[in-house]
Amino acid sequence: MGGPALPAFTLGAQAPMAAVVPCRAARAGAVRVVGARSGATAAAASSASAARLGDLGGPGVAASGRDRSLPSTACQVAAGAAFAAAASASRRASRRAVGRVQPLGLTPPSSAGGAVAASAAASLARRAVATATLEKPDEMYGTATDSKFNIPQGVRDKLGRDLLLKSAHPLGILWASVQEYFKEQDPDCKFIDTEMPIVGTKECFDDLRVEPDHPSRSPSDTYYVNEGTVLRTHTSAHQTKYMRQYPEIKSFLCAGDVYRRDEIDASHYPCFHQCEGVRLVERSKMTPEEVMEDLKRTLEGLAAHLFNASPGEGTMRWNDDYFPFTEPSLELEIFYNGDWMEVLGCGVIHHDVLRNAGLDPEKVHGWAFGLGLERLAMVLFGIPDIRLFWSDDPRFSEQFDKDAFKNKIRFKPFSKYPPVMKDVSMWIPESFNDNDFCEIIRDEGGDQVEKVELQDSFTHPKTGKTSKMFRVVWRDMSRTLTNDEVNTKHEQVLSRVVAELKVELR
Ligand code: DAH
């Protein structure tokens, strides 16, 4: 497919979607950073990665196809609207590095040459974040805020919801099932699911080899409490803390809520859940080849356990991948419901990451993996919209109990209420960022906003001004919205967009 070219500095998209299966949404997320590759290798990785579907960290339902050259949001734009796909691809690609991932992508600012680095830096500089009307508390859970704070109330409200700890919630059920498998594999495995999502940029990025100017650190993609503190963008942020406790802890799983500023659709939400797994072993006890075999056997077993499949030819496959924290890096796909679906990202832990955790790579090595839980739960339970995970509607919650996974319960959708559509057409300044726009809409509309689609974009040939037109789909999951109530919120969105993003409405 003639998908749009990605910007030179990005390597890989977050959750690009197969153009051939346009509406099988994928979440992008993880940011994979390409660190030590040559320019040529990086370029090759870029196109390969950009063409992949899934987002390990994110919840989107990734379906693999042969032709994955368009981003997932391609399904949201009119056929042939290459500009929208290009914008989306570039946005995803820029994030796909840090463990964003799925969020997986990468940018090689240093390895791909000065021009690339300059381009990445310029892009970061341009990403001013709209925080004008953001109410800034002095502190958040004991951490002082500063001028970099960019977390709206709606996102703050997600902290402490602890969906993973609810035994009858689809995410809690899935997390329990993952633990069950690892308990059988390794009785000493430690399970961690109460770590606070407020972490240092050191643990979230530096320790994991995410370059200082990587776009995934941008406040347009990541929620900052202050300059050195973020809402974790992936559970990999806890890797080094627990690796440091080797040999008391030799293997662990760490699950929790992770946060990313992002677009709005059925598979993207600013808060979602991941599970991280690590196993460490003495070098004297296992060769590097045996570590790789152990990784593959264990994770194929996990996929088989979750999907009720048997590992083997035809049902699962391994693809090369890139994450800054593992070398080599792989992704596991499973053939499910007639298509290849990305299940997880993993690899052999990079020696620098071991060193950052105070370990000696001459003595200890190991593997790690990351899993996006919403995405799997959406597939396994047939849940069509990511907002449902946060719903208190008994018609959702009463469909699940702790045995729902074992009993192969599928979600029975309740009636959909009619949508109300609102279009926003505007001249945008150079600093305009789609995520800032989505954030204002989320802030005003909360879970009543189902989707924000870019419909049109063009640059005026004479004035050089750029225009964008978005369609906002409002729909409550429990009742019919009236046009009047949506109008009130829409007007509020418009006035904030004008005031905070400096756009000119058309
Ligand atoms: N942190 C990655 C993400 O958010 C997921 C991941 C990939 C975790 C590979 C890992 C790993 O531990 O080895 O997409």
TrEMBL record:
Its EC number is 6.1.1.20. InterPro entries: aa-tRNA-synth_II, aa-tRNA-synth_II/BPL/LPL, Fdx_antiC-bd, Fdx_antiC-bd_sf, Phe-tRNA-synth_IIc_mito, Phenylalanyl-tRNA_Synthase. Residues 174-413 form the Aminoacyl-transfer RNA synthetases class-II family profile domain. Its main location: mitochondrion. Keywords: Aminoacyl-tRNA synthetase, ATP-binding, Ligase, Mitochondrion, Nucleotide-binding, Protein biosynthesis, Transit peptide. One of its GO terms (cellular component) is mitochondrial matrix. It catalyses: tRNA(Phe) + L-phenylalanine + ATP = L-phenylalanyl-tRNA(Phe) + AMP + diphosphate + H(+). GO terms for molecular function: ATP binding; phenylalanine-tRNA ligase activity; tRNA binding. Residues 415-506 form the FDX-ACB domain. It is found in: Mitochondrion matrix. SMART domains: FDX-ACB. GO terms for biological process: phenylalanyl-tRNA aminoacylation. Belongs to the class-II aminoacyl-tRNA synthetase family. This is phenylalanine--tRNA ligase.
